Amino acid sequence: MTPITLNTLKALKAKGEKFSVLTCYDATFSTRISQAGIEAMLIGDSLGMVLQGHDSTLPVTMDDMVYHTQCVSRGNQGSLIMADLPFLSDADIATLLNNAARLMRAGAHMVKIEGDHWLAEGIQALSQRGVPVCAHLGLTPQMVNQLGGYRVQGRGEAGQLLIETAKKLEAAGASAFVLECVPSEIGQAVTQAVSAPVIGIGAGPDTDGQVLVMHDMLGATVGHTAKFVKNFMTEAGDIQAAFEAFHQAVKQGQFPAPEHCFK
Ligand code: KIV
Ligand code: NA
């Protein structure tokens, strides 16, 4: 398979074609997910919850992220690899640059950072130095203590602010966006407002790409799963088929369905 790059995702957006993304944390699943044609894999700090058993992503360290990025990189068969900058790994610009460098050396092609309009300075510093950045907006789980829980964001006036923030961060150099848990109309508006690809999770059907946590879409997650999750294992019957079904459902605009979206 010709390796997927940022340009591939931009070209898909320009053509109005959808792409799929899954989280991934190890080499075996990396091979399987990339062989299913899924365009990008995210080493998400969600590993703190699904692999390590913490009740939030806050305990995840840079060492954890580097280790899992190396594992995913070894198994990859051509997908774009994005890695999360964990909680407070961007305390100042020098720290941010060093931590992003560690993820890139571990095999990431892009880093993802959670926040808001104030991310502009860090995004500019990274992108100027050759590190593509995905800005994660909307529900940002590293801020769960500030937000008071995992709640839908961008309702009412906050939706307009989100659109302005995305434009500002694209101007600062953001190459992609993750938009989490926002009303579908805000997902659509942000996607139209920026030329960088927008990857949604609980952001409606109109974003350029869709991402899910692998454990959630395989039906492996213990306990509560969010409204935006679909279990692709039930119908597919085996893991490889579930990855392929997810990819096809996103490509054909069948996922997310209305029951996975917020109004
Ligand atoms: O950590 C993660 O898995 C993520 C995705 C849910 C976007 O950030
Ligand atoms: Na994350």
Output the keywords:
binds sodium ion, alpha/beta, 8 strands, 263 residues, 14% strand, binds 3-methyl-2-oxobutanoic acid
In a few lines, what is going on in this structure?
With 263 residues, the chain is an alpha/beta fold. Helices cover 42% and strands 14% of the residues. The mean pLDDT is 98.
Topology:
Blueprint: H1 6-15, E1 19-23, H2 27-35, E2 40-43, H3 47-50, H4 62-75, E3 80-84, H5 93-105, E4 110-114, H6 120-128, E5 133-138, H7 144-147, H8 157-172, E6 176-180, H9 184-193, E7 198-201, E8 209-212, H10 214-217, H11 233-236, H12 239-251
Parallel strand pairs: 1-2, 1-8, 2-3, 3-4, 4-5, 5-6, 6-7, 7-8
Helix pairs in contact: 2-4, 5-6, 6-8, 8-9
Pathway: Cofactor biosynthesis; (R)-pantothenate biosynthesis; (R)-pantoate from 3-methyl-2-oxobutanoate: step 1/2
Catalytic activity: (6R)-5,10-methylene-5,6,7,8-tetrahydrofolate + 3-methyl-2-oxobutanoate + H2O = 2-dehydropantoate + (6S)-5,6,7,8-tetrahydrofolate
EC number: 2.1.2.11
CATH class: Alpha Beta
Q: Assign the structural class, choosing from mainly alpha, mainly beta, alpha/beta, alpha+beta, or little secondary structure.
A: alpha/beta
Order of helices and strands: HEHEHHEHEHEHHEHEEHHH
Q: Please report which band the strand proportion falls in: under 5%, 5-15%, 15-25%, 25-35%, 35-45% or over 45%.
A: 5-15%
Bound molecules: 3-methyl-2-oxobutanoic acid, sodium ion
Active site: 180 (proton acceptor)
GO cellular component, one term: cytoplasm
Catalytic activity: (6R)-5,10-methylene-5,6,7,8-tetrahydrofolate + 3-methyl-2-oxobutanoate + H2O = 2-dehydropantoate + (6S)-5,6,7,8-tetrahydrofolate
Binding site for Mg(2+): 45, 84, 114
